[in-house]
Amino acid sequence: MSSNEWKVTPAFISNDAVSTINAAIEKYRNWDRFGKGDKKGTVNYITPEKRVEATKCVKTGKTISCAMQLNEHGPQTGELKRNNPLHLFTLTGTDYTSPNAPKFPHGVAFTDDYLTMPLQAGTQWDGLGHTFSHGSGYGGTKCYEHVDAGGDRFTGIEVLQHDIVSRGVLLDIGRMYGKTTPEGVEGVLPDGWAIKEEHLLACMAKQKVTIGKGDIVLVRTGQMERYRKTGWGTYAGGDAPGMSFDSLDWIHRTQIAAIATDTWGFEVRPNEFPNSYQPCHQVCIPNMGLLVGEVWDLAALGADCAADGVYEFLLTASPLPVTGAVGAPLNPIAMK
């Protein structure tokens, strides 16, 4: 397969990007939907009743993680000032061979380690303080009040630590529209491929699933699996398949609680408007209040769903509750 077959030129939605983006901001803004001072955005759609309903998706008790392992071999290259995790040990088995090692009774010994990493270096949620729009954060707070040197003062990721358990649905757009790569990875969309509402609806019909209020949608493009085979290259920060600006009406209309992809930035790259940067982020996070997940490893879940034809599951996806964080790693678990 030639490289040209994987090159896609984005179709621009409008010649007037500014007016189009600003119109979407006004149309999809949820600042007043969940009450004054709301901190959780679309996660409010996940009610206790929704969680009870989601447990009905569990038929076999099979569990599948959707998280990348955290180590120095991850995809980060320093782009966006993000580096791979640094894992170091303060006590090892070797330390106990030294006469200066800590002494404990009865021959017991311990090891300890720590992790240094950007909170968005691996599988993560973008918190609602991650993106500003025209100087404001979610709810209309001024950007300098919303996040300062002390962290996110309004929508820190810790406010969601109890909430993100719901029905999950995988939409395997990659297997429906993608190709098998020269490395043998099945169902991969080319970089720059924009996922529009028509693609989402067609995939739902093919997989025989519905999506509605309070659901968490996982979108598999296959990009992570391709880069894992070829080397990470520009995976973290480069061109990618992803959500089209066209999909925002569907995302807002369905009242989903969250959406996550197996790409670094959720939306299609290059972006569909000339001279823009992440316009879907600008609409979704600070205005819609949508919880966005990135760098999710959907390989095992995608293969399992393709094998048994079951694309819904109970999903637990709580972020690490780092106080005031604007994003956080997690280990999402799908239970089928």
From TrEMBL:
GO molecular function: arylformamidase activity
A Pfam family: Cyclase
Cross-referenced InterPro entries: KFase/CYL, KFase_sf
GO biological process: L-tryptophan catabolic process to kynurenine
Similarity comment: family membership: Belongs to the Cyclase 1 superfamily.
Protein name: Putative cyclase
Organism of derivation: Gonapodya prolifera (strain JEL478) (Monoblepharis prolifera)
